[in-house]
Amino acid sequence: MLVHDxxxxxxxxxxxxxxxxxKWKQACISDADFMHELVLCRDLCSRFSAKRMIIDQExxxxxxxxEIFTWLEDEFNLPVYRAGVEDLAFVLAxxxxxxxSVMNFFEKADxxxxxxxxYEQQQAIDWITADKKEKGxxxxxxPPEAFEPFIDISLNPEKTTATIQLEFPIDxxxxxxxxxxxxxxxxxxxxxxxxxxxxLTKREKNILKLLVKGFQNQKIAEKLYISEMxxxxxxRNIIKKLDAKNLIDLYKxxxxxxxx
Length: 260
Fold this sequence. Notes:
Layout: E1 2-5, E2 9-14, E3 19-24, H1 31-48, E4 52-56, H2 69-82, E5 87-91, H3 96-108, E6 116-118, H4 121-128, H5 132-137, E7 150-155, E8 162-167, H6 173-198, H7 202-212, H8 217-224, H9 228-242, H10 247-256
Parallel strand pairs: 3-4, 4-5, 5-6
Antiparallel strand pairs: 1-2, 2-3, 7-8
């Protein structure tokens, strides 16, 4: 039963399955319109006492801004959860920026929901309407055991930018997007901290590598044939140059700049 239809979204309620099925349309949308439509979906969950909800983003193109992450959790997820929705599933957006922003939200928001992502609507329906025992037997979003992605690189006419096109099996899409997201975070960290890393001497880089491996000052001194006092001095310099607050910060540098 169609219960809502606007320029941006359609919402069906399937009473026999206690399922609210929302499907975004391919339309330009503002932050305000996005929030307005979610409020309508939230109110429909309460009106029909839906226990399940699917959000189909296949045609949707909207990058969720960081500024509304708190609103999204407090004004949509929490009320929907309290209204009785037990399971939340998404159909993957074909627009990578949209999909990555959704994944980023659930990673940062400490949400009441731990959503499942599917690449087809019927898969989402099959999973979300199954009982708990059946859910455990349903395999989804499992990548092939081995595959070789096709990579195509093209330059713009001025040869100032490059476009990288990846082609891989649809089964690996959620995993591949997550991997790309992690790579983008790594590239941003590298761009923002490149000058700090370059300020390290060769000796400091060697000590940094040993520090994140868990070696104490005395062991580092023994391995590099220097005094423990010298190690302590290098350690202070490393922390100051990298503006590191803890060992995790140091680990990010070694991982990003391939020291380990």
